[in-house]
């Protein structure tokens, strides 16, 4: 079992594995709006790729979905 596994059940197809997961990334309020969250997301995705992940699942709040989908 992995964190966020419950989100995979409604998928129409299984994402190609191995699968990396991004969850609970937080930037303090006083540092928001500077691109730090985007930089950290890109860093997480790059690390997942470097580890051989073919998919990255993002267990994030709805307001972050659009930004991640564009990466």
Describe this protein's structure.
The chain has 71 residues and is α+β, with helices and mostly antiparallel strands. Helices cover 28% and strands 14% of the residues. The chain has helices spanning 36-50, 65-69, and strands at 19-23, 55-59. The relative contact order is 0.25. The model has no long low-confidence stretch (mean pLDDT 83).
Write the topology of this structure.
Blueprint: E1 19-23, H1 36-50, E2 55-59, H2 65-69
Parallel strand pairs: 1-2
Identify the overall geometry.
Answer: globular
> Which range does the strand content fall in?
5-15%
Order of helices and strands: EHEH
Instruction: Point out poorly predicted stretches.
Output: none
- In order across it, which strands form the biggest sheet? 1-2
Count all strands and give the number: 2
How would you classify the helix and strand content by structural class?
alpha+beta
Helix content: 25-40%
- The rounded distance between the terminal residues' Cα atoms is 27 Å
Major pleated sheet: 2 strands, parallel
Query: Taking Cα atoms only, what radius of gyration do you get, to the nearest Å?
Result: 13 Å
Q: Helical region count?
A: 2
Mean pLDDT, rounded to whole units? 83
């Amino acid at each position: 079992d992995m964190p966020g596994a419950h989100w995979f059940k409604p998928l129409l197809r299984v994402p190609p594995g191995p699968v990396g997961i991004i969850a609970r990334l937080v930037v303090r309020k006083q540092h928001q709006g500077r691109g730090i969250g985007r930089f950290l997301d890109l860093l997480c995705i790059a690390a997942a790729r470097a580890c051989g992940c073919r998919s990255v699942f993002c267990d994030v709040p709805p307001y972050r979905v659009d930004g991640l989908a564009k990466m």
